[in-house]
Each structure stands twice: as C-alpha cells, then as structure tokens.
Amino acid sequence: MKNLIAQVLDKLSEQSRKEKSREADVPPEDRMLAITKETGELINMILRLKKAKNMLEVGMSVGYSTIWCAEAISEKSGKIITIEKNPNKIKRAQTNFEKAGIADTISIMNGEALQILTELSLKKEYGEFFDCALIDADKENVIEYFDLILPLIAKNGIIITDNMLYPEKYREQMKKFSEYLKKNPNLITITSPIGNGIEITMKIQ
Ligand SMILES: C[S@@+](CC[C@H](N)C(=O)[O-])C[C@H]1O[C@@H](n2cnc3c(N)ncnc32)[C@H](O)[C@@H]1O
Questions:
Q1: Which atom of ligand 1 is nearest to the CA of 35?
Q2: Cα Rg of the chain, angstroms
C-alpha cells in the first residue's frame, strides 16, 4: 500500500477509535461512524480478488471506507461513486482523498441516497455496471437501498452491508434485512461477525 494512503487510513483509524471510546468529544453529526479496520481490509481484499473496477458506496462520511476501497480500485484504474448528504463530511472527505492521493478515483454525489440511487437506476449505462457496492448509510432504508442497487450490480458482483450486528439497536432490523436477502434465489448471502457485522451478498443471476 502506498505510504500516503496508509498514513491517512492510520490517522482516520485513530480518530475513529477516539470517537468510539469517547476520548474525543465529537458532536453526533460530525462523528465518522466508520467501518472497522478489519472490515476495510476484508473489503479491500474482496475488491482485489474480484479485480473490481467500478464501485458504488452509499454513506461515505469522511471517506475512511472509501479510501480502503479506492486503494484496491485504483490498481485497476477503476472508479468509485460515493453518496453522502452531509456537506461538512464531504469537505473533510475531499481533504482526506487529496492527502491520500486518490481523489481522481472517487466521484462524490452530494444528496439523499434514495433520490440519487433512483436517478442512477434510471440511467441505462449503469445497468449491471458496478462490480461491488457498500451500503453504510441510515439503516431505516436498507432494503430500499439494496433493491435499487441490485439491478446496477454485475452478475457475480458483491454487495456489502455494514452494521448487521452492532450497534445492537439495529440488530433486529438488520436480521430482517438478512432474512429478506435469503429468500431471493438469485443471491448468496452470509452474515460475517467481522467488525460491526457485515452482510456479504453475491448476485448469482
Ligand atoms: C455510518 S456513516 C458511513 C461511514 C463510512 N462508510 C465509513 O466507514 O467511513 C453513514 C453516513 O451516511 C450518511 N447518510 C445517512 N443517511 C443518508 C442518506 N439518506 N443519504 C445520504 N447520506 C446519508 C451520514 O451522513 C453518514 O455520514
């Protein structure tokens, strides 16, 4: 991994640790709410194994997960489209991407995820376009996000969803989401206990 990327990831990882332990007193709207380092490493490896070129992310925050993805995607000269509605977080993410030297790999879409995903799904060129997606925004709309993303994913593409097990307040809702996925014969899906618990779903048809 390039030095600049590793440095930014380490710094953000430390910031996330401080937020989670409440060592740093950050107002809720400014919190990173990031995936764990182990989750970042696993997603990075999945992207490499798949030789992924095109990635879609819902819920960028300050870009920690995006950088983990961009590190793998940039090797294939690919692109990430990432969605975020909080303008302050977008500014912080842009700074982080510049510092990591991967800004060219990432295209930020500023706004409401449901609206942006609906717009993307109406564009013919995005049909089965993405090799991989990460869903990590509000949990209330997770099924709607998944349903909008699925037609945009290539056959054998992967959709990863964070927070399947933690925070515990979402567990029941995320269990229903996982059960919903299991009913679909065109998908293979597993819940992995890594990090906050992630759902790894493959579109087989
Ligand atoms: C859990 S954080 C994402 C963390 C990020 N994936 C990471 O690991 O670094 C969720 C982010 O989704 C954004 N978000 C929540 N609901 C959204 C929505 N409806 N549309 C767009 N962004 C949303 C929040 O502002 C927040 O920054």
A1: 8
A2: 16
